[in-house]
Design a protein that fits this description.
about 110 residues, mainly alpha, 3 helices, elongated
Length: about 110
């Protein structure tokens, strides 16, 4: 059943290109590529921020400033600053240094 649905979808996409306007489809996929790249970057940055949050939590635990059962949460004022500062640092770093990478790859 899945194979039939996949083939029907494939034929529908092919016909969209055959009878559609190429300029319109180019613009559509150009916008889709921007959305895709933005979501990919958000996921990648979120993973990097989580690594940094883990290191900060380990340091605070080793220093005796938090208990071992403390969990990161935006609702807890004791840990919300860690989440916000890590995501802010990743965002600023991407905004300042990411354009150089984009220019290199383009």
């Amino acid at each position: 059943m899945g194979l039939v649905i996949g083939m029907l979808f494939m034929f529908a996409v092919i016909w969209m290109f055959v009878i559609g306007d190429p300029i319109r489809w180019t613009n559509f996929f150009r916008k889709g590529q921007l959305v895709s790249a933005a979501l990919y970057s958000l996921g990648h940055g979120g993973n990097d921020a989580q690594k940094t949050m883990g290191i900060i939590m380990a340091l605070l635990f080793a220093a005796g400033l938090i208990s071992p059962d403390t969990q990161l949460s935006l609702l807890d004022i004791k840990t919300a600053w860690i989440i916000v500062s890590c995501h802010l640092a990743m965002g600023i770093g991407t905004a300042l240094g990411g354009w150089r990478i984009v220019k290199t790859m383009a």
